[in-house]
What we know:
Elements: H1 8-36, H2 44-74
Helix pairs in contact: 1-2
Amino acid sequence: METPRTNRNLLVDGLKTMGITLFLAFLGPFILHAGLSNPEKPLFIPLVIAGVLICGTAIFFGFKGIRTIMDSLFGRK
């Protein structure tokens, strides 16, 4: 009986996805804060919308990365 092994290619893909998540997790709140701190500027609404979308994308990539890493460790059933 063969023991299950980690799929290294899938693990690397998951870690890359988590790297993107980390970048977006810092970028989103930074842009959101920049937008909310200047409500009288003309770019108020676009910056707030972009910040919220980037934060949402970071959450999506976080779940996707964790799922990919779990699939690489335990195998997709």
